[in-house]
Amino acid sequence: MSKRQTSKPRRRSRPKVLEVRVMSPRIAWFGFLKFLGGATKIACVLAVITGIGWGIWQGIQRAFYKNPDFQLQVIDLNPNPVIDEAGLVEAANIDLTASLFDIDLDDLSSRLNHLPEIMSARVERHLPGTLVVRVVPRTPRAWISCPDAGLTETRKAGAMLVDYDSVAYRCPARQLDKAIHLPQIHLPASDKYPIAAGERVGHPELKHCFQLLKSASESDAEAEQWIESVTQNEEWSLLLVTRDGTEATFGIGGHERQIQRLRAAMEHAAQKGYVIGTINLIPKHNIPITLREEAAIPRAIPISEPTPVDPNARRRERDLQKLLNRD
Questions:
Q1: 188 Rama sector, left if φ>0, alpha if ψ -120 to 50, beta otherwise
Q2: Burial of 109 from C-beta contacts in 10 A (0-12 / 13-18 / 19+)
Q3: What does the pLDDT average to over 125-130?
Q4: 124: number of CA atoms within 13 Å, CB side?
Q5: For the stretch 229-257, what's the b/e string if a residue is b when 16 or more beta carbons lie within 10 angstroms of its beta carbon?
Q6: Is the pLDDT assigned to residue 62 strictly greater than 70?
Q7: How, if at all, do strands 237-242 and 247-251 pair?
Q8: Rg, the chain, Cα only
Q9: What's phi and psi for 158, nearest 5 deg?
Q10: How far apart are alpha carbons 121 and 109 in whole angstroms?
Q11: CATH number of 131's domain
Q12: Which pTM was predicted?
């Protein structure tokens, strides 16, 4: 039996390499020249790229910005009752000598959208030289009167209007012809609900007055022509004054029935040749009515005047009450 011979594993020897760098002025100089050459190549490439970019920029400037063909030549503004081309140039501070590409469309749109009388605006470039502007004007619903807040004048350019979204704005001169026949809404001054151009009017009274005007317009398309003003005179009632001075008292609700009765009374009075002084439409029966002998002069706020006693007034009032109490 033979013995197994064992031997220790041999370790492989690794040659030890000693790296020696020799630095001398000559070698350093050549290294610097090599680095400088590489940097010069990079600088040349950058210079070429910069030159190309500059050339492209100059080409764009000459082809577009400095090209007289692209100078602003036409302002295409849609017909509207609040602003014309001259007003647009002034409001948006447009340079008429500028290139079409120099005009900041976002800034121009922002300026127009901040005008209280404009609901929305959109601006576009149409080459070669047309600036297209489309505005949506506010549609007025009524005039706002608030003497305690300094809003005493109505039905003139610069007076305060309110649109269907309850946003107040100053009446533009171009919109006066369309708005001059609108009713007035009298509001009380309130620190909680200030009235400012471009802001929504938060008065609860405005909402009630709007509801009455809406019911009147739905009942009679010409209601705006004969309604002078609407005021919430009490917490539970509204006062509507017609153009001939009739004072009609309405409740906060139930306007449809009350408007129909007012129209019936006014038509009957017109046929008989007399004018209603006051009428309270809140009661469903036995509606209180007073008459005037002569037609009243239209006023924003009627002034009571003495009138001669009409011996037939009682009979006419009874006739009107019978007419209104048929249902």
A1: beta
A2: middle
A3: 90
A4: 9
A5: bbbbeeeebbbbbbbbbbbbbbbeeebee
A6: no
A7: antiparallel
A8: 41
A9: 95, -15
A10: 6
A11: 3.10.20.310
A12: 0.72
b/e for 70-98, b at 16 or more Cβ within 10 A? bbbeebebeebbbbeeeebeeebebeeee
Q: If you write DSSP's letter for every residue of 109-124 in order, what string do you get? A: HHHHHTSTTEEEEEEE
Partner residues linked to 136 by β-bridges: 120
Q: Is the pLDDT of residue 234 over 70?
A: yes
The domain of 290 spans: 140-324
What are the two backbone dihedrals, phi and then psi, of residue 297, each rounded to the nearest 5 degrees?
Answer: -75, 130
Q: Which residues pair with 134 in a beta bridge?
A: 122
Which two structure tokens, joined as six digits, stand for 21?
């760098």
Q: Give the distance between the most distant pair of CA atoms in the chain.
A: 161
Find the DSSP H helices in 167-203.
176-179
Residue found by looking up tokens 């020897």 in the block: 13
**Nearest-10 crossing angle of helices 105-113, 85-92:** 110
The CA distance from 288 to 304, in Å, is 18
**Cα 96 from Cα 252, distance rounded (Å):** 54
Name residues whose C-beta falls within 8 Å of residue 92's C-beta, 6 or more positions apart in sequence. Answer: 108, 111, 112
Band (pLDDT 50/70/90 cuts) for residue 305 is very low
d(CA 132, CA 129): 10
* Predicted local confidence at residue 298, as pLDDT: 44
**Number of independent structural domains in the chain:** 2
Q: Is the pLDDT of residue 33 over 60?
A: yes
* Nearest partner of 232 among 256, 206, 213, judged by Cα: 206
What is the pLDDT at residue 301?
39
- Are both 122 and 160 inside the same structural domain? no
Last residue of a domain, which of 76, 107, 137? 137
Q: Is there a single domain that holds both residue 215 and residue 273?
A: yes
Whether residue 96 is found in the same domain as residue 212: no
Average pLDDT of the chain?
83
Please tell me the total number of residues recorded for the chain in this structure: 327
